[in-house]
Amino acid sequence: MKVTPVGVRYLLLSLAVGLAAVNTGNNLLYLLFAMMLSLILVSGVLSERALHRLTATRTLPPRLFAGTPIPCRVTVANARRWMPSFSLRLRERADAGRVTAPETRCPRLNPGQRLEFSTVITFRDRGLHRLEGIEAVTAFPFGLFEKSVCLPDETDSLVYPAINPLPPLAAPSPPGEGRRAVGRGTSGLHQLRDYQAGDDPRYIHWKHSARRAKLVVREPEREGSRVIALVLSNRLPPDPLPIHRAWFEDAVRLTASLASQAIGDGFEVLLATWDGASRPGRGRPHLERLLRVLATIADAAPSSDDRLIPWTSGLQNATPHLILVWDDPAWSRVRPRCARVWVMAQRGQPEALGA
């Protein structure tokens, strides 16, 4: 319970009336003092009842990105049979330093009523966030006190790094060749799979589709499959400063943006860090897997194991793109072999440095 500014003034006035009644012995002042105390009691009881048997649920989209306002649907219900709730204010119950959301007002919620409203929620950083519930606050009926209750709706949300737009990593097709280029550069049709939205109808295998009673497409095998290896050096220097932590987050965001852009350009992408490497892949499901890794990645502890450096140097069927948090001299021999190198400590704005 919190006393409002109006409530503070009311309590001081009640105290003054009570002192005056004791000093003068005036029965009218005693009566007025008793009435003021009864209003305080009634205010506490009614505000408590206004928050009784409320429930709330929230619905978030499947993909959440840090720093992006995310639409959210919140449903609040009054399970009481007789008494409505008045002057409700609803807000997120979470770490204020990591999650921000505007407050929503509900003037009246009738018995048995379910109210659904739209709001936005912003996660300030990537990683796993726990939303404890929806906090309902009311100052009903006289505005003297604010009472609140947490309506439990615990949600664990994995927030991906922010993705910023980048220039294409592949040369764009000449104008007018968008549809004709679909069939170019294929050496054969090597496997069948279920039809997905966006597939070229020319690759539908009608005999197998009729046999399976669902659409099946022949997946073309492209000549010279293009693979990009995103190598993120997630090691910080000894005794890192706060600026190194900020550069590390910049590196994670850049890696996520590069992965999204490369997959959008039709490349196969693999991600390698000091914690391990993924398999090459393309398409939205593979991007989701990479983003889940980047959402929870942490700086690697220094060790004598430098396998990532010779692994990057020995890549044969992939083009390495190197992302460095700081100008680590251990990578000096590998950088000339990389198609592009980004060093977070050497840029004011996101820009690629040719190695």
Explain what this protein looks like in three dimensions.
The protein is of the alpha+beta class and 355 residues long. It folds into 3 domains: 1-160, Sandwich (Immunoglobulin-like), CATH 2.60.40.10; 188-221, no CATH class; 227-346. Helix content is 26%, strand content 32%. It contains 6 helices and 17 strands. It has helices spanning 5-24, 27-50, 206-212, 242-264, 284-296, 308-313; strands at 2-3, 54-59, 64-65, 70-78, 85-93, 99-100, 104-109, 114-123, 127-138, 145-160, 186-194, 216-222, 227-233, 268-273, 276-277, 319-324, 340-343. The strands form 4 sheets. Strands 1, 3, 5, 7, 9 and 10 form a 6-stranded mixed beta sheet that branches. α1 (5-24) packs antiparallel against α2 and α4 packs antiparallel against α5. The longest helix has 24 residues, at 27-50. It is elongated. The model is unreliable at 171-190, 221-225 and 348-355 (pLDDT under 50).
Main traits of this protein?
single chain, 355 residues, 3 domains, 6-stranded mixed sheet, elongated, disordered C terminus
- Helix-strand pattern: EHHEEEEEEEEEEHEEHEEHHEE
- What fraction strand? 25-35%
**Mean residue pLDDT:** 84
Straight-line N-to-C gap: 61 Å
Oligomer kind: single chain
